[in-house]
Design the sequence.
């Protein structure tokens, strides 16, 4: 019993004194450097197996793969302010687009899955529009609806036999 007590105390001391691994970004590199002045900073590396970082007196020196500063950039929301129902899908002959609240010019483009533009139309303030699919082979197509401010809605259209 005494041996188990000594063994458990020893294990606890080892676990408490162990240090964890650092998760700082570090790589080894064959070459690289960083230059900066009041107007900017330039960083480069080649090979990148290890990185090191040194700092003293408020200055920081880093080498290798690193991203010293995060810059957050605002992205404008280009959400379209209209709604559309696309039916029937899958289709045989045609696809109907039923628009709600369409108040601007809209470009409608039909693409193949490899990116070939098959059809392009511009419409404005419509309620319903029918696109003929009769001339196209059975398969999958991409329908892109794009407003003048580049807000885009995409739909996958399946053409059956």
Sequence:
């Amino acid at each position: 019993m005494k041996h188990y007590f000594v063994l458990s105390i020893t294990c606890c001391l080892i676990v408490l004194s162990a240090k964890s691994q650092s998760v700082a970004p570090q790589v080894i590199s064959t070459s690289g450097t960083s230059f900066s002045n009041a107007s900017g900073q330039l960083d480069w590396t080649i090979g990148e197996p290890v990185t090191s970082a040194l700092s003293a007196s408020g200055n920081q020196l880093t080498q290798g793969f690193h991203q010293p500063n995060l810059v957050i950039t605002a992205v404008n929301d280009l959400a379209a302010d209209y709604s559309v129902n696309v039916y029937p899908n899958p289709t045989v002959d045609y696809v109907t687009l039923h628009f709600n609240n369409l108040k601007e010019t809209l470009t409608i483009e039909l693409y193949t899955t490899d990116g070939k533009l098959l059809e392009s139309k511009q419409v404005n303030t419509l309620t319903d529009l029918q696109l003929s699919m009769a001339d196209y082979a059975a398969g999958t197509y991409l329908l892109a609806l794009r407003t003048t401010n580049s807000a885009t809605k995409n739909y996958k259209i399946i053409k059956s036999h």
